[in-house]
Amino acid sequence: MLTLKNVSRRYGDARTGTLAVSDLSFEIGSNEVVTMVGPSGCGKTTVLKLMAGLLSPTDGSIEIDGRPVVRPPEEIALVFQDYVNSLYPWMTVAQNVDFPLRRKAPERAIRRERVKTAIDSVGLGGFEDHYPWQLSGGMQQRVAIARGLAYQPKMLLMDEPFGALDAQTRADLEDLVLRVRDTFGVTIVFVTHDIDESVYLADRVLVMGPRPTFIEADLPVVLPSPRDQIETKELAEFARVRGDVYRRIRRSSEAMRTEATRTVTA
Ligand code: ADP
Ligand code: MG
């Protein structure tokens, strides 16, 4: 469904700029949950923004269903980590969820129905008329997810969406993401730096190497569905993949540190 071919992205000019992504190629299949995990600053957000058409590649090509991504495609919605700043404080929950739909599905009755379904599916029925500041952090992030769902994207890109939440809320929202995939048949790319989360959610884990980022490993996760926060994590296969991801990340962080030391002492 989404293809990146030899994609590079540089910030700034060729001599002094930062090469965040270099010669990256991969494909995301329809209805997959693909997680991306890698060290901070390696280029994960840059990759998501490229996929969302919010940044253009310096080199290479990105296609969605065979068409080049040149501007944000209608099929894609993005959920950011920073939900506090991604909701409009002067709008209610329902108005926030409705906002991006105004351009896409102009008919009021259709919009109202979609907004309601999305709000219900994240468990916020009854909070339609609340304002973001009247909600907890987990509830605000649910609103951001509902907004993405109401848009009915084919693909949902999520950038470390649960980083700031407590463990229980985070677990609930992870399960919500999996339910959403099953209910709406949406393809999900989920960036996280939490290794357990990357394995728990995924059909495939992309372990990203240090900047300029590349795919260090593309690991299939063969775990039964539906997943369960306790039972799935007790399975030998979960432990095996988790260990594999962990070792690869530790190796690349060590490589980064060695590189940094060499630069400092040179
Ligand atoms: P990650 O999401 O993995 O933490 P990012 O994609 O945000 O990494 O950043 C990758 C690299 O690109 C970092 O070194 C960062 O400083 C740099 N970078 C990101 N955005 C910009 C920007 N708008 N201008 C200049 N450099 C940037
Ligand atoms: Mg990031």
What is the structure about, briefly put?
The protein is of the alpha/beta class and 266 residues long.
Overall pLDDT: 91
Tell me the CATH topology.
Answer: Rossmann fold
Radius of gyration: 19 Å
The percent range for helix content is 40-55%
- Under the CATH scheme, the architecture is 3-Layer(aba) Sandwich
Q: Give the overall shape, derived from the CA principal axes.
A: globular
Counting structural domains, the number is: 1
Which regions are unreliable across 5 or more consecutive residues at pLDDT < 50?
Answer: none
Helix-strand makeup class: alpha/beta
- Distance linking N and C termini: 45 Å
Total beta strand runs? 10
Largest sheet features: 6 strands, mixed
Written description of the protein model:
The protein has 266 residues and is of the alpha/beta class. The chain has one domain: Rossmann fold (3-Layer(aba) Sandwich), CATH 3.40.50. The chain has 10 helices and 10 strands. β4 (59-64) and β5 form a beta hairpin. α5 packs across α6 and α8 (195-201) packs across α10 (236-265). The longest helix is centred in the last third of the chain and has 30 residues, at 236-265. It is globular. The structure holds adenosine-5'-diphosphate and magnesium ion. Residues 44-45, 159 line the site of magnesium ion (MG).
